[in-house]
């Protein structure tokens, strides 16, 4: 199976999310891979009904599953577990620190399926492991650009090198807005369709200004001038002014840019001396917020214009 994945060993070693995992059996299967952030409680699969079993997912065994295995006949429990372990199960995780039956540990050892235990209740653990897997497994990419938070709107500034993205971001910071990332933006896809941008750790809070060099925005302007991460709401591409190019003058064109399968608004801003890009970007952010409230200035203007044209009386015809 292709795509981003995690080994069971990586999940066991994590200390950031407080999963509280320890290994009980199946050491030989610690290299098994997890590709999906979804988990499964096997439920009826323990009784032999495996039609809807997803072995590639983490199988969480809670109080219901362990109680069932402890209460049924030992032979029946052993047969059910043997049938279950015949599938390529990624791993079992037992919640509430419950003790699993020995037949489960033995079958897991024989099939190289890790059995892990956590002290958390099932609902708590499922929430923690889902957040962990979503953070680690969802698609990511890097883009050359600058990400800023302007009035709560995440704006990704793109354009060729040297066009003035960092200088524009610096102007926005001076106006009271916030820097997220300069030069290289690390982007993660969030469920269901959101993109979160942040800076690489090595260049976090730093900005390169040609002629000045590297400056630390946090040290210069304080913690209120930076953000660790921000959802990207729109892409604003800076392009060199071309007198032969026709640019959008009404704002009726709803262009989109696709990043990691997510479509977000895309605006091209021509750059030339005398244009105050900081003010233009502020207005773009305010306009985005207005659109989110259902008001579209360009469409409103078009509707009023068309209404006036329709109501204009016809002139006298010349005989």
TrEMBL record:
Residues 207-216 are annotated as: Important for the catalytic mechanism of both phosphorylation and dephosphorylation. It catalyses: [HPr protein]-L-serine + ATP = [HPr protein]-O-phospho-L-serine + ADP + H(+); [HPr protein]-O-phospho-L-serine + phosphate + H(+) = [HPr protein]-L-serine + diphosphate. SUPFAM superfamilies: HprK N-terminal domain-like, PEP carboxykinase-like. The keyword Iron-sulfur does not apply. Residues 136-304 form the HPr kinase/phosphorylase C-terminal domain. Residues 270-275 are annotated as: Important for the catalytic mechanism of dephosphorylation. The active site is at residues 144, 165, 183, 249. Its cofactor is Mg(2+). Mg(2+) binds at residues 166, 208. Residues 7-133 form the HPr(Ser) kinase/phosphorylase N-terminal domain. It comes from the Bacteria. Catalyzes the ATP- as well as the pyrophosphate-dependent phosphorylation of a specific serine residue in HPr, a phosphocarrier protein of the phosphoenolpyruvate-dependent sugar phosphotransferase system (PTS). HprK/P also catalyzes the pyrophosphate-producing, inorganic phosphate-dependent dephosphorylation (phosphorolysis) of seryl-phosphorylated HPr (P-Ser-HPr). Homohexamer. Belongs to the HPrK/P family. The Walker A ATP-binding motif also binds Pi and PPi. This is HPr kinase/phosphorylase. It comes from Oryzomonas rubra.
